[in-house]
Amino acid sequence: MAALDSKASGKMGMRALIYYMTTTFIAVFTGIIVVLIIHPGKGSKAEFGKQQKIEQVSPADAFLDLIRNMFPPNLVQACTQQFKTKYGKRVVTVTMTVNETLFNSTNATQEVMEISREEAIPVPGQVNGVNALGLVVFSVCFGLIIGNMKEQGQILRDFFDALNEAIMRLVAIIMWYAPIGILFLIAGKIVEMDDLTQMGGQLGMYTITVIIGLLIHGVLILPTLYFVITRQNPFTFIAGILQALVTALGTSSR
């Protein structure tokens, strides 16, 4: 962002936002359709789902959490935690006065009743996880400021270019040794399984579902969108960014 002109980066950012929202919506819709067709969780134990507690979340609070996470008060904390509204319980006591009249007489009695009920109240909280949205918003704003500084920001641009190159080399090293660690992680989980046949079948169906969804989205939908927008061969473009795609696949990056 620092290397781009502010007007060009603004147009590019708006187009990127529209593209991201569109492809995300299509990906969610595709995933739901594939899951409904394949049913990867079919055959699992019925009591497994009953043990999970579903937390009720207000749509308004979820949207406000999204806004709050866009502007983290602490960047270091944003690397490990993100804001999330939690719900506490509060007991509310209501006092009611009941008038009673006996046999249409003038004598009446009053009875005071107290009714207590519990209500959920939103409480600010934190959950473990990288606040990627806040970091991205800060990085974009910071990059735009550096870009407007012209020559004064050249030192920072050179620093972040060198930092990016160092991180890419580190990621390349991790990608070479990651399969060894993944092998031992999977082996440890396999040893802990009680019913290897049932778990293997469920994981197999889950893997097939994920692969089919990725193929539909990556081979059909995205190239079609590229062709509709640019009127160019999408596979020529994919061949040019093949190395970046392999890196994203190896690091589980979007």
From TrEMBL:
It comes from the Eukaryota. Keywords: Amino-acid transport, Cell membrane, Membrane, Metal-binding, Potassium, Sodium, Symport, Transmembrane, Transmembrane helix, Transport. The chain crosses the membrane at residues 17-38, 127-146, 166-191, 203-229. One of its GO terms (molecular function) is symporter activity. It holds the Pfam family SDF. It is found in: Cell membrane; Membrane. InterPro entries: DAACS, Na-dicarboxylate_symporter, Na:dicarbo_symporter_sf. It catalyses: K(+)(in) + L-aspartate(out) + 3 Na(+)(out) + H(+)(out) = K(+)(out) + L-aspartate(in) + 3 Na(+)(in) + H(+)(in); K(+)(in) + L-glutamate(out) + 3 Na(+)(out) + H(+)(out) = K(+)(out) + L-glutamate(in) + 3 Na(+)(in) + H(+)(in); D-aspartate(out) + K(+)(in) + 3 Na(+)(out) + H(+)(out) = D-aspartate(in) + K(+)(out) + 3 Na(+)(in) + H(+)(in). It is a multi-pass membrane protein. One of its GO terms (cellular component) is plasma membrane. The keyword Transcription does not apply. GO terms for biological process: amino acid transport. Belongs to the dicarboxylate/amino acid:cation symporter (DAACS) (TC 2.A.23) family. This is Amino acid transporter. It comes from Pagothenia borchgrevinki.
